[in-house]
Amino acid sequence: MKLVADHSNADTPERSDYPMLTASATEGTINTDPAWYTPARLLTAFCVVSFLVFLDRGIIASNGVNGDTESKTGIQGEFQLSNFQDGVLPAAFMIGLLIASLVFSELCKHYNAFRLIGWGMAIFMVSSVGCGFANSFWTLLVCRIIMGAGEASIINLTGPFIDDVAPPSQKTLWFGILYLFPTVGIAVGYIFGGVIGASMGWRMPFLIQAAVCVPVVLWLFLVQPISLRTMHDDEEEAHTDLSAPLLGSEAAPPAAVVNSLWGDICILCRHPVFLYSSLGYCPVQGAFGVYSYFGPQAGHELFGVGRESIDLTFGGVTIVTAVVATLLGGWALDRVGSSIKNAMLLNGESMHGMPRLHDSWTALPVNVSKPGL
To answer: What's the predicted TM-score (pTM) here?
Structure first.
């Protein structure tokens, strides 16, 4: 027996009325939901997880943690990094994230996806400790790569869970709430890193971040897991046996995993919507990465404002704009109809202000004293 969601029938009950699969489909049984589970609680838990992993991006970009070579503060000051080396740190993070994204996306076919989020969070936590104790640029670089790999499970797997359980009429709003917290995490990271890094040293924010992650990791491993139903609706066998508490299933042969991954990549490479969306998404994320990482440092250099004040300003402005824009976008898309075409049209309308922003930025009557910014 298995449940199949029929999106074409308007009378179909909301997905939150269905129990999540928590037992092996080969046994023909479907257990009731875990005692802790409701769709709203799951959304709340994933919002917390997303907030914590993106908090790190704001921390390392803050002036209190990143510092500079002239004042000999922060990461740049201690390791005497050039702007290029400093820029390699977020790039390395993304390399780990991109490679691990493919791995976790394939592993969720063979292991319990909820447990994989726990493993990703654990990897992230341990790497954060490594960043706090790094004694060289290369040690820090390796820790950043591994940290990106841990974050990959959260980025890849939380969204499909919300797609499973969100009410169809409010699905876009639920996604808006979920994806609001990464931006809020970055913004709070600016403030947290700027304040704690300036007063307690650049290492302490990473260690505090890891300490906060401990109860979240324990919860992800100890609670009864739910399963990602969309991975098993059309499969004869669902790998969700709870007898293996940390993974949730029997290991698949490595060759089978690699072959399946390669087959999926080939399918995606022949899919025009995926290819065009990716080509359009890459430059947007590239620009966002530059602004989010070098923004606080550039603000200090351009306007001569104190480092801590710049971190607080960037964090505050980002929080306000992220909350308004994300929730407004989700509400607007639900109103006009949740479809790829409507989403692209709304996104295109929102980009009309970018040329004006560029013109105002380049018209600033200031000189940049630091090469590379």
So the answer is: 0.73
